[in-house]
Amino acid sequence: MSEYQGVQENARRWREAVGRGDLVLLDGFHALKHALRFGADVRAVIADDPDAVRALAAELAPDVEGDVARLVGKAELRALLARVHPTGVAALAVRPDRAEGRARLDRRPRTAPVVVLDNPRNLGNVGAVVRLAAGFGATGVVTRGDLDPWHPNVVRAGAGLHYATTVDRVEIDTLPAGPLYALDPEGEDIRALTLPDDALLAFGSERHGISPELRARADHLVSLPMRPQVSSYNLATSVAMALFHWGGPHQD
Question: Residue 2's pLDDT band (boundaries 50, 70, 90)?
């Protein structure tokens, strides 16, 4: 097979794979790297310059260099993607099984909290929260509302770290078990509390805060320290502060 035929075959396989609803776009090398590190079933990897991607793997992620070298194929990215990542590579991976993810969320005792995002609106913010949850070792991130936490823009902002934690969408009556700590300006200062490992840490939408129904469901209302006349923190910043407090040196 000529190089041209190989490129065309890789493009054809990519287009066929995109038609499957259970595959997730991994946009860029870092998303691919993280997905491979955390066990994603990667079905296709394409690049304008596969050798450059292999070199990037050797430099930045030698632990997955062999997987990248085996998977990457040449294709013209601009013909297949609306936006090409600066690292010049994209991949498709299988979305994790929801039943298995739900089992991890419901497993007791939990050793780390679950982050609950109540009707978030900004895709990039949700992706940033997934990155934080993965970095802190949280059990998972669940969202309420119509935003899909596996939307391509969320996965892009999460840099492939959806595979390092559990990410799902839930309803209020299907929240994982555990005491619910809702972040609210009227709550008790978080510095006076010890957050248990099985806590659900709930954060409201960027504009409206915690919804009335989730506020009513909360076991505790918790506030973050904030200077007077400052209206709010960014969602990801709030999550980072709460997770840092949970995992800080005062915890047993």
Answer: low
Amino acid identity for residue 60 in this structure: L
CB atoms within 10 A of CB 18: 14
Q: What is the pLDDT of residue 248?
A: 64
Instruction: Quote the CA–CA distance of 228 and 133 in Å, as a whole number.
Output: 28
Write out pLDDT tens, residues 119-151: 999 999 999 999 999 999 999 999 999 999 999
